[in-house]
Amino acid sequence: MLSSFGRAFRTPELRGKLLFTLAIMALFRLGSHVPTPGINYQLVQQCREMGSGSNSLLGLTNMFSGGAMLQLSIFALGIMPYITASIIVQLLTVVIPHFERLKQEGSSGQAKMTQYTRYLTIGLAVLQSSTLITFARNPWQLFGGAPEACPTIMTDDSLWTVSLMVLTLTAGTGLVMWLGEQITEHGVGNGMSLLIFTAIAAGFPGSLWAIKDRGWDKFVLVLLLGLAILTIVVFVEQCQRRIPVQYAKRMVGRRMYGGTSTYIPLKLNMANVIPIIFASSILMLPMMAAQFRTPDDGTRPAAWIEWVSRHLTMGTDPVYVLVYFVLIVFFAFFYTSITFDPDDVADSMKRYGGFVPGVRAGKPTAHYLRYVLNRITTPGALYLGVLALIPLYALDALGSIGDFPFGGASLLIVVGVGLQTVKQIESKLQQHEYEGFLR
């Protein structure tokens, strides 16, 4: 494998793409440490040290931004507005006929949908930056702890300063989106995925170092557990059910077409990390409402706020665990049904003379595909739910929040993006008649 990396860097074209990708990733990490105008960086660090560290409300966004969210940097929003916009546009293709027609138009329609995604990303960035600044006015909502422990982190809360902060955070999101597109076009791999990979992987050393401070026994135990989880995740992410497809021979003019055999690959985890993001976002809503409705004068909050704070805050509370697990399983089936339509696949196969051996073309093929899809989605959804719950119990055992890097959305993204990037580098190596990574 190391020799293959050396050969990759000795290939001029591939070396340029790899160096360009690494440079963009380094620039992304540099921007994650540049403070936003109007924010006192020293006060932010003090509040992070004095707070309780319980950032469950914005934990997912902070993870995707590589810790830039809780540092209030110019890349504080990270890639989350683009991810949200992409998911919304993808869901709208099922609801809005115009988007569905664009999806069927090929590259030209995809270019228009990409443009819509960019516009929606900027709109969401304005909304999310305004929300983040609202939290910044009450820093204890971001960093935890008592309100008097961290009274302020803003140098000025005038309209001009707030407007400049919103503009800076929105521009930072636009720049991150542009950097990701540059990697996709001129580098190696999917740019947006690699930026998410960079943000998540950047937090691993700090998390492992924090675990080491709690004792070498826990550090070794976490490494062994992480290695076991990593092995399982890599195995499951590579699992797929291949449905054989045979195409009948047909004459078009004087030429014979068809007669070939192929297969439809159905992954065990077709929804990838999306169900975890959806479930975390849904559970974030009642916690956010409770945060905004909590009185600041020290009086006792309403009964529903106390119930939400007690049962729907990230932890091992049975109510939270059950709701989180059920939501992940539900969204796994929901998102899979949106991204893979058995009726559309069956109609396309019938149109081109394809059929599954032993199954009649048309509706019987659609029923068969739906049956197989449900059978493989069930263990895939349960696997996602268990994987997402591992950090909760691991953090509870370690007595810390945010110090367990192996599990949930983070490991899924790191493994998925890593495998995808390695395969792309391998394919480029094979184009130059070199031996690939995987032997």
From TrEMBL:
<dbReference type="InterPro" id="IPR030659">
    <property type="entry name" value="SecY_CS"/>
</dbReference>
<feature type="transmembrane region" description="Helical">
    <location>
        <begin position="404"/>
        <end position="422"/>
    </location>
</feature>
<dbReference type="Pfam" id="PF00344">
    <property type="entry name" value="SecY"/>
</dbReference>
<keyword id="KW-1133">Transmembrane helix</keyword>
<comment type="function">
    <text>The central subunit of the protein translocation channel SecYEG. Consists of two halves formed by TMs 1-5 and 6-10. These two domains form a lateral gate at the front which open onto the bilayer between TMs 2 and 7, and are clamped together by SecE at the back. The channel is closed by both a pore ring composed of hydrophobic SecY resides and a short helix (helix 2A) on the extracellular side of the membrane which forms a plug. The plug probably moves laterally to allow the channel to open. The ring and the pore may move independently.</text>
</comment>
<feature type="transmembrane region" description="Helical">
    <location>
        <begin position="218"/>
        <end position="236"/>
    </location>
</feature>
<comment type="subunit">
    <text>Component of the Sec protein translocase complex. Heterotrimer consisting of SecY, SecE and SecG subunits. The heterotrimers can form oligomers, although 1 heterotrimer is thought to be able to translocate proteins. Interacts with the ribosome. Interacts with SecDF, and other proteins may be involved. Interacts with SecA.</text>
</comment>
<feature type="transmembrane region" description="Helical">
    <location>
        <begin position="116"/>
        <end position="138"/>
    </location>
</feature>
<keyword id="KW-0813">Transport</keyword>
<dbReference type="GO" id="GO:0006605">
    <property type="term" value="P:protein targeting"/>
</dbReference>
<feature type="transmembrane region" description="Helical">
    <location>
        <begin position="72"/>
        <end position="96"/>
    </location>
</feature>
<keyword id="KW-1003">Cell membrane</keyword>
<dbReference type="InterPro" id="IPR002208">
    <property type="entry name" value="SecY/SEC61-alpha"/>
</dbReference>
<dbReference type="InterPro" id="IPR023201">
    <property type="entry name" value="SecY_dom_sf"/>
</dbReference>
<keyword id="KW-0812">Transmembrane</keyword>
<comment type="similarity">
    <text>Belongs to the SecY/SEC61-alpha family.</text>
</comment>
<dbReference type="GO" id="GO:0005886">
    <property type="term" value="C:plasma membrane"/>
</dbReference>
<feature type="transmembrane region" description="Helical">
    <location>
        <begin position="158"/>
        <end position="180"/>
    </location>
</feature>
<feature type="transmembrane region" description="Helical">
    <location>
        <begin position="192"/>
        <end position="212"/>
    </location>
</feature>
<keyword id="KW-0472">Membrane</keyword>
<dbReference type="GO" id="GO:0065002">
    <property type="term" value="P:intracellular protein transmembrane transport"/>
</dbReference>
<keyword id="KW-0811">Translocation</keyword>
<dbReference type="GO" id="GO:0043952">
    <property type="term" value="P:protein transport by the Sec complex"/>
</dbReference>
<keyword id="KW-0653">Protein transport</keyword>
<feature type="transmembrane region" description="Helical">
    <location>
        <begin position="319"/>
        <end position="340"/>
    </location>
</feature>
<feature type="transmembrane region" description="Helical">
    <location>
        <begin position="380"/>
        <end position="398"/>
    </location>
</feature>
<protein>
    <recommendedName>
        <fullName>Protein translocase subunit SecY</fullName>
    </recommendedName>
</protein>
<dbReference type="InterPro" id="IPR026593">
    <property type="entry name" value="SecY"/>
</dbReference>
